Amino acid sequence: MRGSLYLFVGICLFLTLSCNSQHQETKTVEKTHEYTNALVNETSPYLLQHAHNPVDWHPWNEQTLDKAKSEGKLLLISIGYSACHWCHVMEHESFEDAEVAKIMNDNFICIKVDREERPDIDQIYMTAVQLMNQRGGWPLNCVALPNGKPFWGGTYFRKEDWKKQILGLANTYKTEPNRVIEFADRLTKGIQEVENIGLNTEEVNFTWKDLNNMVSPWSERFDNRDGGSNGAPKFPMPNAYHFLLKYAHLSNNKEVLNHVEITLDKMAFGGIYDQIGGGFSRYSVDKFWKAPHFEKMLYDNGQLVSLYSDAYLKFKKPLYKEVVFETLDFIERELMAENGAFYSALDADSEAEEGKFYVWNETQLKLFIREDFDIFKDYYNVNSKGLWEHGNYILLRNKTKLQIAKKHKISVSELEAKIVNWKTVLMAERAKRIRPGLDDKSLTSWNGLMLKGYVDAYMTFGEKQHLEVALKNANFLAKTQMQEDGKLWHSYKDGRSTINAYLEDYTIVSSAFIRLYEATFDEVWLSRANQLVAYALENFYDKNSGMFYFTSKLDPELVARKMEINDNVIPASNSVMANVLYDLGTLLDNRIYKQKAIIMANNVKPDMEKYASGYANYATLMLKEIVPFYEVAIVGKDAHAKALELNRKYVPNKLFLGSFESSEMELLQEKFVQGTTMIYVCENKACQLPTTNIMKAQKLMK
Predict the structure, then answer these.
(1) Buried b (16+ CB within 10 A) or exposed e, 153-172
(2) 392-393 and 360-361 beta bridge pairing
(3) Where does 143-198 have alpha helices with state H?
(4) Strand order, beta sheet including 108-114
(5) SS3 state at 453
(6) Among residues of the chain, what percentage have pLDDT more than 90?
(7) Cα(19)–Cα(50) distance, rounded to whole angstroms?
(8) Which of these, 73, 98, 304, 564, has the minimum number of CB atoms within 10 Å of its CB?
(9) CA-CA distance, 517 to 360, in Å (whole number)?
(10) What mean pLDDT value characterizes the chain?
């Protein structure tokens, strides 16, 4: 990240007060709907959670902003998401309190934003808070001028601190408006500069040295005992580990490969993974992956399915297959709609307690697990290791099935039968509990991540059910969220498609469609991916830098039009686009696409050593230039089956293309031979002698 991120480090805003106080959870008190505000007409579950607060909340729209300008009132912008635990706490403590609401209503135009629906707004105000405080998070609270320029912000506040802060801010704006305006202007300038990147005019030259120089300082922060990065909290960061897996394999770096394996093992064994119902929580609050922040997000699980599927090809561990299948079972059971759309998230809380749905006390477990409790207790660490809060245990593992079986003098198959029974019993008991809240909106970009997860799982394991679900979801996206001109909607709920899509929607969905083409050889998915890319080039592309803006040129202007450059828990939309352009350019023989992709990677190259994990996806693109990148063309009636067989060997530097008969695609022309299925391993369109033999074809891919 360029130095402008720290432009305001050291600047002390006249009213800056710390929000690092210890959090105190407050129980929810059931109330009748004494109050109703403008959020009642929204579809976002997060906004609807606040529709009956005494705070006079408004959604972010032109009417609300015009109201602030006409009344000369400051904007109080509060941003969160439905599964956010501390968002709930602050609502219960402050936003449901009539005294607090009066202060807010008298002095501000109060706006609630669902960060998942409006990531463009979240980007701006999160950047503002990070510039001021060097930290951020949700709930995110900012105060801005009526024109939207922020001048103060923070995250969670206790009620008394919150009252003090906002009263002070309102008073200062009344008494010293010029001072506030001056600071807001300076801060906005900093926001505009962060992550906006220019054209790198240096000659393009990607080498192993570049990647080694990037990974070397990164590896100094590896936790090689418990996996992930040193310290806590720990986030899965699937995009970063996807790159590290490819890098380690292609460079034969055993130390990095070992770190990836340790990390995947520890996550799969930890409390961050739901040992009973499958699926991953958003992050671990400790360094051992033990105690999760219990919200389950679609985007994490989609990417982790892809990561564990690829890792299975490399390591061949049954554990990784279990993780994939159990996670996809969870998705279909709890986060999938009848029309094939995927819902966004499950809340961290139920009955106003974080994790209550997922944890157990020993008395309960002994009641439900009537036989072999000593084995169960050992397997799931119902001991000091698994003990969490209030006498509750988080079920987790620290021994393999073989180790447990040997210790208890039973076979692995006997143990596995017991595990299936334990999970069945506890799932039935858990189903009787009050469930965490469901965020049932469907976000186009997140659906794309989950779609790709299903396709990657299918390509690894060949389970037809996974491909069927993938196709159902892809058709939902193509027929419901995609318009005739290639324009996308960002959100879908209750039969309504809303919000003009962002760059992340175009890039992630096109990436998933390309992968679906590899699994089906149905050219309609390539065509749709190409249509999305063409639309993005028309409406998001910055010709001066070669990068893409996050918002469309058709969208109403905010105080900054930003570029999303750095990868995070989700890869940056620019890094995804770079890979999409490269892959689509390869498959469609489009040199312009590939050139644009290489320019994008070259633009970020100077910054990669300083913030390696933030550029992992660009490094993945560079690998495609550094090592041979294979176009594997399979033509004939068995093309589909041959692709699955070929994919059993881990070769990350390849793309499949194929057809069941003759094709007009440039790279498939004159490759069809009647009565047989031929495999062509090519590089830059230069193909080696075709073969019908899987092992020979695999050997051609070094």
Answers:
(1) bbbbbbbebbbebbeebbeb
(2) antiparallel
(3) 159-175, 177-193
(4) 57-58, 108-114, 74-80, 140-144, 150-154
(5) helix
(6) 92
(7) 22
(8) 98
(9) 44
(10) 93
